[in-house]
Amino acid sequence: MEITNVMDQAIAKQKLPKMAYDYYASGAEDEWTLQENREAFSRILFRPRILIDVSKIDITTTVLGFKISMPIMVAPTAFQKMAHPEGENATARAASAAGTIMTLSSWATSSVEEVASNGPGIRFFQLYVYKDRKVVEQLVRRAERAGFKAIALTVDTPRLGRREADIKNRFVLPPHLTLKNFEGLDLGKMDQAADSGLASYVAGQVDRTLSWKDVKWLQSITTMPILVKGVITAEDSRMAVENGAAGIIVSNHGARQLDYVPATISALEEVVTAARGQIPVFLDGGVRRGTDVFKALALGAAGVFVGRPVVFSLAAAGEAGVRNVLRMMREEFELTMALSGCTCLADITRRHIITEADKLAVMPSRL
């Protein structure tokens, strides 16, 4: 079957055990935000400019000083060996081949050292802060030693969201897999629980006291820049700037934490405005098309991260699947730029799109 766009989850669904597929695909509670993450993109329309020479298009960009081939990066997703035997290693090679950044999850089924051994590539490390700070310190040091370039600190998970598919399935990591980064610390195993094994693991290990002072603490133990992942309000955007974050990732955790928060594309503009250009703002959540990437950049994002499309393509075809998804998104984004009359990322402006709010405000300047 030929895969023509990134929405093709069907192959992954066929290939994966139900518990694994449901873990990747589901959202919290009613899954309203899960649906909204996609639908909000579809309500943003284009205002393309014509008769512009688009024979040469440059989509390269710089993220935290690192030059990458496109503003599309790989978001952290847990347990990738549950999708494919090569797991995070295949994803790392695909991202590197695409000339972009991969973010490795704390809960990877491959260690930071293993992933680093896949050759060159710019890699970020997503961090969950455990109650035992010695564990955190050790992990951050290991990531730094392994050549990881930044920390994406997840801040929206003091407790795990209520993911009802996982509760029904009594989700637990398959017996042959472990949380590789925690293996030597006796924290690599997840026990079967009456509901979701992961929810119980998080309740036991992840620190609910996490606050802004811990961002400062993290800065004191590493030279890696810290991206705060999980900001969806102007207030927290300002706090991130004040507390020395190197950047913000506007994220609702793939709609897996608090249901009925806005889609990330809907929250993006207020976060960008509040950051006042002092630090870059990125977005994840619902990005499936090149058109989505353009819309995010038009609303002020410096780049986007994709999660589920990577995991599903990994399940469907391993490294080649992930390469394919990154290639398709790249090509769609380039095409969107050409058809909008943009030849480089700096050409993309707020005037290239029209949002729901714009439609309500029909500004005379538009007429």
From TrEMBL:
Reaction catalysis annotation: glycolate + O2 = glyoxylate + H2O2
Cofactor dependence: FMN
UniProt-listed Enzyme Commission number(s): 1.1.3.15
GO MF entries: (S)-2-hydroxy-acid oxidase activity; FMN binding
Pfam families tied to this protein: FMN_dh
Location in or out of the cell: Peroxisome
Residues reported to bind FMN: 76-78, 105, 126, 154, 229, 251, 284-288, 307-308
TM regions (residue ranges): none
Protein's name according to its UniProt entry: (S)-2-hydroxy-acid oxidase
Originating organism: Eleusine coracana subsp. coracana
